């Protein structure tokens, strides 16, 4: 009898436990302040499955650009540090008397500079004029010199021709020899002979003597031009060549 009663109690307990478990798996009802809340108990596997499905749907929506991902907000720029400007010292006031004195001094300096520049320009102009006048004077002297040379050459040739016209030489004596003699002749403004001298002798007394005799016969000579006179007389050298008499 004891065994039977023990088995019956075990069976009753099993029935109660099974009924309790069945009630827990279906739903549980709580009564709070006369309000009834129904809570569905979802198994863990079902929850995980639903979470995975939601993630897949979100990824698909992102691929299709259905879900807009919010852009990250830009970081605020740092505010620039305030620049501390140096404090300017107050300007010193200049005494009006000192200012007027400085102004007058500056004006005087400018005036002196302008005067110096004006004087320098005048000096430069004077130098230029002097150079120009000297240049003209030199050119005139050159022209005068050329004219004097031409006049002197013409007069000397005239005197030489006159002397040659009065010069007689025995050709038989100078036939086989070549003689040259340079004679210095000085004439006054009237053409009178003042001075005569053999500068270079031919080393033939006869040849040199015929020349001196011809000069004496030719005096007085024509008046020399005033342009070639120096201190009232004219002086020149004539070369006499025996070849001209052969």
Overview of the structural elements:
The protein is α+β, with helices and mostly antiparallel strands. The protein has a domain at about 140-245: Fusion Protein Consisting Of Minor Coat Protein, Glycine Rich Linker, Tola, And A His Tag, Chain: A, Domain 2 (2-Layer Sandwich), CATH 3.30.1150.10. The chain has helices at about 1-25, 45-65, 95-165, 170-175, 205-220; strands at about 30, 35-40, 180-190, 195-200, 235-240. A three-stranded antiparallel sheet has the order 4-3-5, covered by helices on one side. β1 (about 30) and β2 form a beta hairpin. α3 packs across α5.
Strand content: 5-15%
Instruction: Please give the alpha-carbon distance between the first and last residues.
Output: 208 Å
Q: Major sheet, described briefly?
A: 3 strands, antiparallel
Class by SSE composition: alpha+beta
Helix count equals 5
Q: How many β-strand runs?
A: 5
Give the integer mean of the pLDDT values.
78
CATH class of the domain at 142-245: Alpha Beta
CATH architecture of the domain at 142-245: 2-Layer Sandwich
Gyration radius from CA atoms, angstroms: 74 Å
Overall 3D geometry? rod-shaped
* Contiguous runs where pLDDT drops below 50 for at least 5 residues: 27-34
Estimate percent helicity.
40-55%
Strand and helix layout:
Elements: H1 2-26, E1 28-32, E2 35-39, H2 44-63, H3 96-165, H4 171-174, E3 180-188, E4 193-200, H5 205-218, E5 233-241
Antiparallel strand pairs: 1-2, 3-4, 3-5
Helix pairs in contact: 3-5
């Amino acid at each position: 009898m004891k065994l039977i009663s023990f088995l019956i109690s075990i069976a009753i307990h099993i029935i109660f436990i099974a009924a309790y478990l069945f009630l827990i798996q279906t739903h549980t009802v709580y009564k709070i302040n006369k309000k009834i809340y129904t809570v569905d108990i979802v198994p863990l596997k079902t929850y995980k499955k639903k979470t995975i499905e939601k993630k897949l749907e979100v990824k698909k929506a992102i691929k299709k650009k259905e879900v807009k991902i919010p852009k990250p907000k830009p970081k605020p720029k740092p505010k620039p540090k305030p620049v501390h400007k140096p404090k300017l010292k107050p300007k010193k006031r200049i005494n009006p008397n000192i200012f007027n004195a400085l102004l007058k001094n500056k004006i005087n300096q400018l005036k002196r500079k302008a005067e110096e520049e004006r004087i320098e320009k005048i000096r430069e102009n004077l130098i230029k004029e002097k150079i120009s006048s000297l240049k003209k004077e030199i050119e005139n002297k050159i022209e005068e010199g050329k004219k004097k040379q031409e006049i002197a050459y013409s007069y000397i040739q005239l005197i030489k021709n006159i002397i040659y016209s009065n010069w007689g030489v025995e050709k038989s004596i100078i036939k086989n020899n070549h003689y040259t003699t340079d004679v210095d002749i000085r004439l006054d403004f009237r053409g009178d002979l003042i001075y005569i001298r053999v500068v270079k002798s031919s080393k033939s007394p006869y040849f040199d003597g015929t020349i001196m005799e011809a000069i004496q016969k030719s005096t007085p000579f024509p008046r020399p031009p005033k342009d070639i006179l120096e201190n009232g007389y004219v002086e020149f050298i004539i070369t006499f060549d025996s070849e001209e008499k052969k």
